[in-house]
Structures are given as structure tokens and as C-alpha cells.
Amino acid sequence: MSIRSVNPTTGEVLETFTEIAAKELDGIVEDVHRAFLDWRRRPVKERAQAVGAAARVLRAKKQAHARTMALEMGKPIVQGEGEVEKCASSCEYYAEHAEEFLARQARPTDARRSYVRFDPLGPVLAVMPWNFPFWQVFRFAAPALVAGNTGILKHASNVPRCALEIEQVFREAGLPEGVFRTVLVGAEAVGAVIADARVRGVTLTGSERAGSRVAEQAGRELKKTVLELGGSDPFVVLEDADVAVAARTAAEARLINNGQSCIAAKRFIVVEPVADRFVELFLTEMRSRRMGDPLSPDTQVGPQARHDLRDDLHRQVEESGRRGAEVLLGGRIPAGPGAFYPPTVLIAVRPGMPAFDEETFGPVAAVIRARDEAEAIALANHSPYGLGASLWTRDDARAERLAGEIEAGSVFVNGQVRSDPRLPFGGVKRSGYGRELSEYGLREFVNVKSVAIF
What we know:
- The chain is α/β, with parallel strands linked by helices.
- The protein has two domains: 251 residues, Aldehyde Dehydrogenase, Chain A, domain 1 (3-Layer(aba) Sandwich), CATH 3.40.605; 188 residues, Aldehyde Dehydrogenase, Chain A, domain 2, CATH 3.40.309.
- The chain contains 15 helices and 20 strands.
- A seven-stranded mixed beta sheet has the order 12-13-14-11-10-16-17, sandwiched between helices.
- The radius of gyration is 22 Å and the shape is globular.
- The N and C termini lie far apart (59 Å).
């Protein structure tokens, strides 16, 4: 079988790769397992230096990596350069803090000496998505590798060149052979890798459906999993918000990565006193964004990653319209080549419509009116997802109170939700479980081991 890299801007087939056979896959798993037996024994400082060196390699080829992302999945090239920089910064963060995060922690007991230590688990399979093809991988790999684990990357099948470039980054950074490997296989091969006794954990970022399947497979093998799944993030605007700043940020939060982000704001819940003003300003901001070739530095919105994804997004818009939503902007598939979909704004959205109930993975914004604060928070929580939330109010005490009521893995007040290596990242409900980033993410794939000496 073959894996194809297709340019979503033109439909052109860029490259075709042969999927590796089961025997070769088994050999790679063995190499990664053998590499772990050595890598785990190396001092934390040495592992951290190697991961830190990846930052320099990334920056040296930042433009080339951004171009690959633009060609394979349509990310605007300026955003791709920012993604590479974020990966580099994350590598540096863990290089700086690994020894601190993995240091033994003394615990007073009736033993002469007792403490907690953090030991690596072993090879970890990473099943990663196409939407942030570098960042999603590095936010797993940087902490997992400095902790002493090794990694097997099964990337999304539409970004094979990105997957190979990531493996090359770690190789050029000086990590020993086998510490990080990419496998070009289809989804049907994942179960066999999970079942392999040499593999000790699985992390997945992707759809709810994919996460459920991987969790089921890993559960049968009693293996640790971390899942970062879908989101239908609320963007709640209260009456004391700075509406102009909120509207400007709302457009950025909806259109980042062509709207294809789990933590992109999707449901814009605005209380009645400021709803008309917000919609007016939001429409102006959404109209101003330039859609076009992602290789152009002027482009702010590129194509969707695949035509089938674009078509499914359009189905959600049309079905929401049939159920009473009104399209104020966009909502039509443009003529011409490419999987483009324009910035789209829906109003009169309510529960029971796809634009409210489902994750809209593209540049479609659903505006929902709420009577007051209480209804706004109730609507924000009226979702099977709980990844991130943005809350807009000038009252800090009010913000801190409501942050405790919103069902999400993170709440950003007067700002756009984003991942940051200094903060734990993950969701609740059907957005998954476990955490990435910060010391919490680093300790997901370690054995938290108690040692008592009497």
C-alpha cells in the first residue's frame, strides 16, 4: 500500500511513499526498545542537552519546515514558521527544567530514608494528527525523551514528509539511533504496535473516534495512555468586556491554522447587552482576513487540509441553516481548485444544531446569544467537550469565580486559548484525559516509584 502527500491548495500529488511491511515495523520497534535500554541509563543532563540541541536544528531549517507544512496540509507559511519556533522553545524549556522536574522528592516516613523517583516507562507510541504536524509531535517528544523514554511516531497519513523531517531533526541533534523513529504505516497497523510488549505507553492527539479506539486497544493491554481529542471551545463575552478587543481576538482564535485547531474558539457565547456590538465588530474582523495560497506571506487563511474535510464542514453549515441558523458571512464553497472554505459566521445558533453540538474543524464561527452570565456559563458547559475556554470580563474576581465553574482543561481570561510548555495542557469529558506540557506532562510517562530504606 502507498501513502500519498497531496497539496490541498492545488490537488497535486507531491510524493508517494510505500507503507512499511510488518517485518520492517517489527524491526523498528526492536531498535527503539534496544535504544531505550541504553537511553534510560544516561544522565538526565545528557538527555536534556540532546533535546535542547534539537532547537538549534529546528531553527536552522525553519523556513524549509514551514514550506513542507504549507505544501502538505495548507498551513499559512508565516504560521508554520511560528510553529517551528514554538517547537524549538519547548525543546529549550525541557532542556532547562528536566533535572528539576525529575529530581528525587524526599518523603519523611518511619524508614531511615525514603523518597520518590521518576523512572522512564519505555518506548511510547505517538499517534499524531496533521493540523499542527510539528508542534503536536514535539510537545509529546521533548518531555518524553528527556524523561528517558524513546518514541515511535505514527503520523497522520497526509503529512508523511513532515514525519520524516521530524525524525531527521532528532538525528541531526545527536540523539542516538533508535531513540526516535517514524513509521510510515496506516491506521490499521496501530493496534499491533499497541499490543507489542516492548511498547509501554500510547499518546494520541486526534478525533474522539480515534481516541476511543486507541483507548480500547490500550486498555486491553493495560497500557498507559494520554488522549488529547476534540474540542468545541466556548468564547464567552460578558457585558463588562472590552468588546472591540474581544472581537479582534475572536477572529484570530477562530481562524488560526485555517480554523483547524482543537483549541480554536468555536462557539461565541455573548450576553445580550453587548451582542449586537460584538457581531458587528466580529464580522468586520472576519471579512478582513485574506484567503489564498499558504506559501504567500500575506495569506491569513489557507485551504482545508483535505477536500473531504472541507465537504464535511460545509455539511455542518448547511444542516445548521436548515435547523434555523442564519449565515451572515461565507458559507459557500468557492469555485476553483483547492480545498478552500471562506471565513463563515453563523448567528441564531442553538443546541441541536451541528454548529453548536459538534466540533466544526474549519473557519466557521457560531454566535450564540445568552440572556445573562448564568445562561452564558450554562451554554458554555452544554457540550460533550471540555478542552479550553476563553472568558471576557474586566472583573478579575468575577473571572476567577467563573473559571472554577467552566468545565474545561484550561480557561484563558481576556485572551486566546493556546498551549504553552509552562502550563499543563489537556481536556475533560470527551476531550480526553491526561496532560501534556509542564512538569505534569513530563511525568505522564514515568514510573512514580517509592523507595524506602530501613
